[in-house]
Amino acid sequence: MKWAVLVGGTGSNLRAILESGIKVHLVISHRADVPALRIAQTYGVPSRALLPRDFVDRAAYDAAIANSLEDFGVEAVALAGFLRWLTSPLIDRYRGALVNLHPSLLPAYPGLHAIERAFRDRVWWSGVTIHFVDEGHDSGPIIAQRPVPRFMNDTVEEFSERMHLAEHQLYPRVIQEVDRGRVTLVDGRVCYNEEESPWMHGHL
Ligand code: GRF
Prior knowledge:
Blueprint: E1 3-7, H1 12-19, E2 24-29, H2 35-42, E3 47-49, H3 58-71, E4 76-79, H4 88-93, E5 98-102, H5 114-120, E6 125-132, E7 142-149, H6 156-179, E8 183-186, E9 189-192
Parallel strand pairs: 1-2, 1-4, 2-3, 4-5
Antiparallel strand pairs: 5-6, 6-7, 8-9
Helix pairs in contact: 1-6
5-O-phosphono-beta-D-ribofuranosylamine binds near residues 7, 12, 102 and 167.
């Protein structure tokens, strides 16, 4: 599958994906001058910054994304720090081949600042979730989750670092499983081909 990664920030997950050997054909950022774009450049991956303010509305913005994806023949899309809600036509076009990473054990802590909110609540366990994207907000069918502990004396920085490490380990592996067709979306449910894959119901 030809993958694109949609970014908007530091790009640490983009780097983990690239370092795992997954071939990324295009990187799109919703912000200019972010480290994620420089990472794409370093790895020789074509990249584009598409800024929402340059488009009249969300539909026009997503149409521009869709056009870029088409230009590069993209077949599957991974969101990694892309902090924009996508509209239905784009979600529909890539349904089952559009994945998102979220830094919480969904359905807990959807939305922004999930790590900081969990830390503030003094939860002992949080974690990361990878899910297929649907029309809801951080609500799509869950592919895989990995729990991450908060330790007694953690600072928010230490807790965040542990969370990001879990993301960097899990996301490339999930993308590889989707890429190989070992995990698919069928009638809105995640199906694992357990004969071929190391999966056991979302634990990887
Ligand atoms: C990650 O924590 C991811 O879970 C969230 O945005 C962050 C992106 O970080 N959706 P990075 O840009 O990959 O470093």
